[in-house]
Amino acid sequence: MMQDKYDYFMLAYDSPSFSAAAGKVPMSPQGFAKAIRNLERELGVPLFAVDEDGTRRATPYADELYEYAKRMRAERNLLASAFERISSSGYVELRIACSLGVPGLLGSGFLDEFLGQHPDVSITLNEMPDAMCESVLRDGLYDLALTVTSPVDDFHSHELYSSPVSYWVRSDDPLSARGVLEPEDLAQRRLAIPGDDFKCYRDLLARFEREGVHPPEIVKYSEIFWIYEFVLRGEGIGFTLPHLASLEVFSGSDAVTVVPAQGFTWGFGVSHLKAHTLGPREEDLIAYLDRRAAQLRRV
From which residue to which does the signal peptide run (predicted)? Predict the structure, then answer.
């Protein structure tokens, strides 16, 4: 179907009359003439003139526009051929949503090796809070998501990594001597943790509710550094994970220690909508991420 106004113009230029040109579209002669008049108004120049004997002729403006339109058509055809070549080569663009903190755990440039092995793949990856990560995947805005592990009815998820949850406790706090912290222990202190948009917060509240424990005062911080500082200042205890607590920036002081929390885990996996059928490259990526996460599981 011809839709481009310059295609109409080229037909008019090559045809003996607007009626003949309109018949090739097809459309009414009146509609075709209107399309040409609209183009003339847009360009601000007359493209066709009528001689005294009623003969329609192209103006010099039309001659110049015709050469331009031919070049544009050739470029458009080349572009269409390029698109077809890319499509037939199996080029794949993957959109991946990712919960905050997961790329840091997998390592800087964790996708580089996969992209080197699969030059036909392009990946767009965006980090966001846990709740948003699930929301954009559910809305079909992303193909896959690296989500914090927790059952979601409309997702298929493949767990890549799981870790116990711990809490930072000041060394002079009696809780620091405990082997593990029970929900009742957590409820005795002000508690700093990532907030509403993070699954660790929602899982904690759900655990308190299941066990009939009244939750303590909870201070919500989005940055793990602020949680550590909260504990260091003696304001309470704070959520952490073993791989975070072992970072050099947090291990330079004896004033804060790490105590595991009984029955709490944190992990992540690759998720996709149940209605989404995985393509070959998506399956390749999941297998690659599983191999990379296996290095974390061995630590």
Answer: none
Whether 55 and 88 share a structural domain: no
pTM passes above 0.85 = no
CATH code of the domain covering residue 166:
3.40.190.10
The tally of domains found in the chain comes to 3
Residues 168 and 243 in one domain: yes
In order along its 299 residues, the chain shows pLDDT tens digits of: 345 788 899 999 999 888 888 888 888 989 999 999 999 999 999 999 988 888 889 999 999 999 999 888 878 877 877 777 666 667 788 999 999 989 988 988 899 999 999 988 999 999 999 989 998 998 888 999 999 987 677 899 999 999 999 999 999 999 999 999 999 999 999 999 998 889 999 999 999 999 999 999 999 998 999 999 999 999 999 999 998 998 888 977 899 999 999 999 999 999 998 888 888 999 999 999 999 998 887 65
Q: Which residues contact 182 (CB under 8 A, 6 or more apart)?
A: 262
Number of Cβ within 10 Å of residue 172's Cβ equals 10
Longest CA span, the chain = 107
